[in-house]
Amino acid sequence: MSHEQILSETRAYQIEQYKTALQQARQQVSFFELEQRALQLRAHQNLPPLRPSVLPLVLTQISPESGEQLKPSELFQENETGAILKAHAQLFLPEQLSGFRQSAPETFVLLQAPLVDEYQILQAKVAGIQALAFSPTLLGARRAQLYYEKIGLWGLLPVVEVSSLKDLPGALVLSPDILLLQTALQGAACYEWVSQIRQQAPPNTRVIFQGEVSSPEDWLHLQGVGVDCFCLSAQNIESLAKQDIFMQMSRPHPN
Predict the structure, then answer these.
(1) pLDDT at residue 1 greater than cutoff 80
(2) CA torsion, ordered 142, 133, 186, 11, to nearest 10 deg
(3) From CA 63, how far away is CA 122, in angstroms rounded?
(4) CB under 8 Å to 247, separation ≥6 — which residues?
(5) Average pLDDT, stretch 6-21?
(6) Residue 229 · residue 57 · CB < 8 Å
């Protein structure tokens, strides 16, 4: 089974979980009530819109099990970092994130999960999330445009997912500020894949790479073909740290 097939089957299973969780959430807090909470929060914050430039160099990927307490990663503390929460349906509920946000109020947080309902955008806003990822391929062109605009309206950064070159046209039609590239490719094939996307995307589009980086050389090559931010597992980051990645990060990009 190909990587794309595995992603597709996993996504289908997750979507059913999310739909069930959303039905339960709406029974507890209606769309109107949650929208009022989001409006009050936006009014009290009175903050300027987030810009893609706030992206940190590294996002530590956190994938907690249901019911597990979220804790900020201690890795990469000496560098500007953030977190990407790639998790189960219940994580969209604001109360599930309250402890995490209180212990790491300054941490940039990107939430990645199947976005299938506008209600989830409100949940992310109330939970204190800064950025929300979604798939145009999953939503379809009309809903993708609507959700892209809604995410920005609520003061979050919309992050558009791309897992294959087939996804790219649907992503680029949104004129995205940020692309999240998901891949299992490694080495030269990975560099070429990222390079092709980078060449077709507008120059000011920021690129997040979500995959495996096995060495400082991988890191430098990916930066050289246009990666702005790395989304890596804690284990991957720890492995790179042992290879003096902190020193490599400050070196010039390869041509």
Answers:
(1) no
(2) -70
(3) 21
(4) none
(5) 75
(6) yes
Q: Which pLDDT score, from 0 to 100, does residue 90 have?
A: 58
Give the pairing type, strands 206-210 and 229-233.
parallel
How far apart are the C-alpha atoms of 154 and 98, rounded to whole Å?
Answer: 19
Q: H-type helices in 78-184, by residue range?
A: 94-103, 118-127, 136-139, 141-153, 168-172
CA–chain centroid gap for 131, Å, is: 7
Tell me the three state secondary structure of residue 223.
helix
Q: What are phi and psi of 102, to 5 degrees?
A: -70, -35
φ/ψ region of 46 (left if φ > 0, alpha if ψ in -120 to 50, else beta) reads left
Residue 47: CB atoms within 10 Å: 8
Say how far apart CA 63 and CA 193 lie, in whole Å. Answer: 25
Q: Please determine, for residue 126, whether its predicted confidence score (pLDDT) is greater than 50.
A: yes
185 is written with which tokens? 């490719």
Cβ 211 vs Cβ 185: under 8 Å: yes
pLDDT at 131: 94
DSSP 163: S
DSSP label at 157? E
Residue in this structure with the two tokens 């791309």, named with its chain if needed: 162
Total residues belonging to the chain: 255
Question: How far is 124 from 127, CA to CA, in rounded Å?
Answer: 5
Residue type, 242: K
